[in-house]
Design brief:
Distance between the termini: 11 Å
Shape: globular
Number of strands: 15
Radius of gyration: 20 Å
Number of domains: 2
CATH class of the largest domain: Alpha Beta
CATH topology of the largest domain: Quinone Oxidoreductase, Chain A, domain 1
Helix content: 25-40%
Largest sheet: 7 strands, mixed
Low-confidence stretches: none
CATH architecture of the largest domain: Alpha-Beta Complex
């Protein structure tokens, strides 16, 4: 089969398209014929191996898993021993490892039937970005009806899901984005849009019950000015991570928390089957839809990573296989 192989940490040119053996479906696994795979910011960090501390887990000199990619959609090709509820030919979506390939073996518990009405590309886009947004809105922000929510970085992969989820939870949503993406976030339900090239949301005097910060473009002190006295600041991500630990902003937020009335929240996204079910139900109900910015073929994976690294996305990036 064709697969993308990462030979080292670095720029997109460390990725190569090679012929490799099709992996077997081991006990509790399914072999999926991958039709589409989602490309996320986490994949970008794993490509570069930055911050360096992550290499303790993923490999010191080079990635232990040579085929990158986590979010997928496709068809069940074969099932391993002990797998029930799935059979060859079923259309599925979910997550695993090594999905930037024509075939991937993943735990059966990580996949389920694709949401009705979605293409493989759209289903693959309901991945890490959607999980992250759901946890940020529901669990960390604890968004409730009537809350004023600001989303800094609303037009990207996580942001487009976060806008829709916050609206589903009954919030009044203010989206911070660039001039060219205002129309997109408005179409997703944002009640107000702040163009960061023209207005600084930390200096306009408005305050919010919940702030989801996806890019860390303002200091923590400045961001707190835009919160109500007991508001919640949820740090989802930062645009520029440090080379070594990459957690300076998260550490500062946690150290600030005991001394302020506002809530400082930091989290690590965890994928679960329960949340995959929630996302599927929200999509099928019409409350959430994946937004795809760019589509690339498997042979264009270097270009896909390069585009992701430049930023300014309007939704999610998907690789077709």
């Amino acid at each position: 089969m064709r697969a993308v192989v990462q030979r080292a940490y670095g720029a997109p040119d460390v990725l190569e398209l090679r012929d490799v053996e099709v992996p077997p479906a081991r006990d509790g696994e399914v072999l999926v014929r991958v039709r589409a795979a989602g490309l996320n910011i986490g994949d970008w960090h794993l490509l570069r191996g930055i911050p360096y501390v992550m290499r303790i887990v993923f490999g010191l000199r080079r990635p232990r898993k040579r085929i990158p990619g986590m979010d997928l959609a496709g068809e069940v090709e074969a099932i391993g021993a002990g797998v029930t509820g799935l059979r060859p030919g079923d259309a599925v979506f979910g997550w695993g490892r090594g999905v930037f390939a024509e075939y991937a073996s993943v735990p059966a518990a990580n996949v389920m039937a694709t949401p009705s009405g979605l293409s493989f590309e759209e289903a693959a886009a309901v991945g890490d970005s959607a999980f992250t947004a759901l946890i940020a809105v529901r669990d960390q922000g604890r968004v409730a009806p009537g809350d004023a929510v600001l989303i800094n970085g609303a037009s990207g992969g996580v942001g487009t899901f976060a806008v829709q989820l916050a609206k589903t939870f009954g919030a009044e949503v203010t989206a911070v984005c660039s001039t060219g993406t205002a129309d997109l976030v408005t179409s997703l339900g944002a009640d107000h849009v702040i163009d960061y090239t023209r207005e600084d949301f930390t200096r306009n005097g408005r305050q919010y019950d919940v702030m989801l910060d996806l890019i860390g473009s303002h200091s923590l002190a400045a961001s707190r000015r835009a919160l109500t006295p007991r508001g919640a600041y949820v740090l989802v991500g930062v645009k520029d991570m440090g080379r070594w630990f990459g957690m300076a902003r998260q550490f500062k937020a946690l150290c600030t928390a005991p001394f302020v009335r506002q809530k400082m929240r930091v989290f690590v996204c965890k994928h679960t089957r329960a949340d995959l079910t929630v996302l599927k139900e929200l999509v099928e109900a019409g409350d959430v839809r994946p937004v795809i910015d760019q589509r690339y073929d498997l042979a264009q994976v270097r270009e896909a990573f390069a585009g992701l690294g430049r930023g300014h996305a309007r939704g999610n990036t998907v690789i077709t296989v």
